[in-house]
Amino acid sequence: MRSKYSLCTVLAITLAVVLAGPQSLAQEKKKLTAETMSDPTLYQGSSLPRTWWLKDNTAVLYDVRKPDSIRTLERLDPKTGKRTPMLDRTKAGESFKKLFPEGKAPRFSPVPNELDESGKYGLYLISGDIFVLDIAKAVVMRVTETKEEEKSPGFSPDGSKLAFVRENNLYSYDIEQKLELQLTTDGSETLLNGTLSWVYWEEIFGRRDAAYWWSGDSKAIAYLQSDESGVSLQQYIGIEPWTPKVTTQRYPKVGEKNPEVRIGVVELETQKTTWADIDRAKYEYVIRVDWWPDSKRYAVRVMNRLQTELDMYFVERKTGAAQFVLKDTDEGWINMSEDLYFLKDRKSFVMSSERSGYAHLYRFSLGGALVNQITKGEWALCNMGPGPFWVRRAITGIDEEGGWIYFGALEKSSLERHLYRIKMDGSKMERLTKEDGVHSVTMSPDAKYYFDRFSSSSSPPSLVLCDAKGSKKLALAEPDFGGLVKYDVSYPELFTIPARDGFQMPASLTKPIDFDPNKKYPVIFNVYGGPSAPTVSNSFSFGVVSDNVLANQGYILVRVDNRAATAISKKLENLLLHRYIGEVELNDYVDAARWMKKQPYVDPERLGITGWSNGGSITLLMMTRSQEFRAGIAGAGVTDFRFYDSKWGEAAMKTDEVNLKGYEENSLLKFAKDLNGKLMIVHGTHDDNVHIQNSWRFINELIKANKLFELVVYPLRGHGVGDPAGSRHLRSATFDFWERNLKGD
After folding, report:
1. How many CA atoms lie within 13 A of 325 on its CB side?
2. pLDDT per residue over 303-319, tens digit each?
3. CATH of 345-456, one of 2.40.50.870, 2.120.10.30, 3.90.550.10, 2.40.50.90
4. Among positive and negative, which fits the CA dihedral 28, 482, 462, 417?
5. For residue 15, what pLDDT is reported?
6. pTM score, two decimals?
7. Are residues 135 and 155 in contact, defined by beta-carbon separation less than 8 angstroms?
8. C-alpha pair distances (Å), 698 with each of 254, 355, 621
9. What does the pLDDT look like over 319-376, one tens digit per residue?
């Protein structure tokens, strides 16, 4: 029919339908199907303008919602709301092309990997080489052109220099003088300067290769040195050429040797390093380094192997002399936190701790004495910006003149994230974000303005500029449903499921768009279930597309968080101590499954469960230690935590010497013989996070017990499969598995 109409006619008809109201519009909508998942317009509302705050308290914007031909960097004055173009994109692109042979230049992006704090320069890392953009001049400069790969580049605080790593040595580069300095010389395959080993990259710094820290005066760099020579090797076998290539990874497993680490400060003037005088026998992990505002000292936080004790030291820059300041402890384990702020009064600092069983803010004297607990209550701080759930950064800004601390918390609900402010003495706490849902906030350096990225379960992301009192000043991006408006979409319903002891587990439910309460539907549980890693929240997810595709095939989709996964408190997390993954998760998910089976619209004989990573482990747990599920898809799950990395595995489970019984009793391998129902195992052969050894060992136990299963292996793929072909195939395999095992007889 489309060929009968001109574009103008189609637009006129569309407008008429919209004006006719929601009833008429609904008649034109389609169902989401496996075929329509490739519609690129479905996800267009997921992108918001990118923002950066500068040290002069103005901001830089890159508005991805504008047509590509006119997008460029803009400066935003938060006081007036005025937006001014900063970059001549065409001129910068021409400058960039001149740095390459004719026709060999890659596509130029006006969005750098990083901006310096003044907004003068932008930094690019392209094919292992570093480039710097002078934004005002629209001129691109090539910093490196070497056969060796450069990585981890970053600006100095004054923007005049760069630091980067080449062949595991730390370098600096003076932009104006075009002067490169090699700051370390002992880097090797196993001795890393300024760059992270895998376990530090993944578990401690949250997938950021941040192993060096500029001093505030831009004259020195503190850096982490890691000796991985004693760390065991993991090998990955390729599929090409005729004799497959073997790649290796340094990966410390539970109980094995970790990288040996120490902190030093190298002065740019002398290229000499002064090492922090902290006894390495007293710590296992260096978890954070923070400079004092005066650049004369820096703080080092270290942790013991069992992760139950965090010690802080203040270290003199010139001598390396270290002063012990304080100890924080936890009966379970100490979580990663970025929250440490030295106040300008030079008398105290603010730090987060879970010592009360909940994550809260505390103020300490420089001698380590507690001045006061700032936040209190049976709720926890939460991460207010991007980044993995296991690294918390709750503080968004501190206005010392006004006496306010701005922070994120789950005080209103564990399903929502909100911005609060409170006085330094713990008084006058108030919530600044009002809309029910999840807010992600970045604040200006002077804590006078902030960007609020907000969504709810039925409203796509928006971006608003607000002042420090929470008043909206400027809407930068409204919620955009994009191509979703063309389809009938069922959005998740939020509710709770009671556990056997009355604990209310957060849950969400997505029904078919033509849901009939008189029918009985098969149900698919989608779980993750890791400590303080909730999957249920009052936020928008474009995963609603795949959920609706399954719902339109006749399933109900359910997500549930066990109590330890809710992020409500450290007390709940610590229930997993010595028994992860085990009874706590098992009992909660059994209770959730049994509750769902009692609902009149659920077919109690047709429950499925699926999850990836920790969720893959939970799936295997439920398919072997319960009889609640007819079928399960387990993706890349840990089957025995002795196969996993030392940092994460030992947090809850500790070492064999401390908790051998716990490892043996909670190993999923011993329960493989008890498999109930139909199981599909999925794994990538080059998964550097959860090694495929986990699946091979579990499969071997299934074979011993003569238990049938299905296996989907993705050659050369990592932890998330990820590539378009792999993702498409996994989606097809998933749909096929549910069709055969939850609908068939």
Report:
1. 22
2. 999 999 999 999 999 99
3. 2.120.10.30
4. positive
5. 27
6. 0.94
7. no
8. 18, 38, 12
9. 999 999 999 999 999 999 999 999 998 999 999 999 999 999 999 999 999 999 999 9
Residues of the chain where predicted confidence (pLDDT) is lower than 50: 1-26
**523 in Cβ contact with 516 (< 8 Å):** no
Task: Tell me what pLDDT residue 250 has.
Answer: 98
- The reply to whether omega before 126 is within 30° of 0 (cis) is no
Q: What is the Cα–Cα distance from 415 to 590, expressed in whole angstroms?
A: 22
3-class state of residue 607 by DSSP: strand
Which residues are paired to 192 by β-bridges?
226
DSSP-assigned letters across all residues of 230-279: TSPEEEEE---TTTT-EEEEE-PBTTSPPPEEEEEEEETTT--EEE----
| CA dihedral of residues 58, 143, 296, 262 (deg, nearest 10) | 120
Q: Work out the widest C-alpha separation in the chain, in whole angstroms.
A: 82
> What DSSP designation does 411 have?
S
**How many residues are listed for the chain in this entry?**
745
Cα separation, 42 vs 548, whole angstroms: 12
Give the pLDDT confidence score for residue 351 in this predicted structure.
98
Amino acid at 260: E
Whether residue 404 contacts residue 422, with contact meaning beta carbons closer than 8 Å, is answered with yes
In the numeric block, which tokens belong to residue 13?
A: 């008809």
Q: Which phi and psi angles does 560 have, rounded to 5°?
A: -140, 140
What crossing angle do the helices spanning 544-552 and 724-738 adopt, rounded to 10°? 30
3-state secondary structure of 473: strand
Give residue for tokens 């947090």: 651
CA 459 to CA 540: how far, in whole Å?
6
Kindly give the pairing relationship between strand 114-115 and strand 83-85: unpaired
Q: Which of 667, 592, 597, 595 is nearest to 637 (CA)?
A: 667
Domain ranges of the chain: 1-31, 188-329, 345-456, 492-743
The span from the CA of 52 to the CA of 116, in Å, is: 10
What contacts 277, CB < 8 A, 6 or more positions away?
A: 315, 319, 320, 321, 322
pLDDT for 25 equals: 41
Complete DSSP assignment for 648-674: HHHHHH--HHHHHHHHHHH-GGGGGGG
Q: Per the structure block, which two tokens stand in for 214?
A: 């500029």
The type of residue at 568 is I
- Which residues does 21 contact at the CB level (< 8 Å), separation at least 6? none
Q: Which of 681, 689, 678 is nearest to 720 (CA)?
A: 689
Q: Which pLDDT belongs to residue 342?
A: 98
> What local confidence, expressed as pLDDT, does residue 3 receive?
38
Query: What is the three-class DSSP state of 416?
Result: coil
CB 515 within 8 A of CB 59: no
- The CATH number of domain 492-743, selected from 2.60.40.10, 3.40.50.2020, 3.90.1030.10, 3.40.50.1820: 3.40.50.1820
What 8-state DSSP symbol labels residue 34? T
